[in-house]
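Troubleshooting log. The previous structure file for this entry was overwritten by mistake, so regenerating from the original sequence record. Sequence copied from the archived sheet and checked twice against the printout by T.R.
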Amino acid sequence: MCRYSFVCNAILSICNEADGERLNDLASLCADMTAACPALASEWLGVFQSLCNPSRHIASYTDVLKEVDVKHLDIHSNLATLTAILVARQCFSLQDFVVQAIQSLLKAWNEGNEMIKFCFIKSIVAHFSFSKC
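Regenerated output below.
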């Protein structure tokens, strides 16, 4: 329950943060906490999956979905920053995230919600430099 609470509160704080430096500090704190408690990785992937496809969300993340409007494009950059830092700090692999995102994106596409998910995924991909791979 503590991991769930931490992830939900972190997502809410990150979505509402307007200051870039504080956003980076919050995302770094999340990465540090995940390094100390690796079980948080599955929580992050679960909440991101729920945000990518809110109509078919994992029931345990309804607390986040009630507070976060995924149609609000301003949060996408903040969530992408968090995701990029978590991946860069090896809290979970880029492959694990992409697999989760693609599955959610395909479900959303089939349900007619492709624009929301496309914008979110596009924001996340923009934070990664694939030219270095």
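The CA atoms of residues 88 and 132 lie 13 Å apart. Archived copy saved in two places this time.
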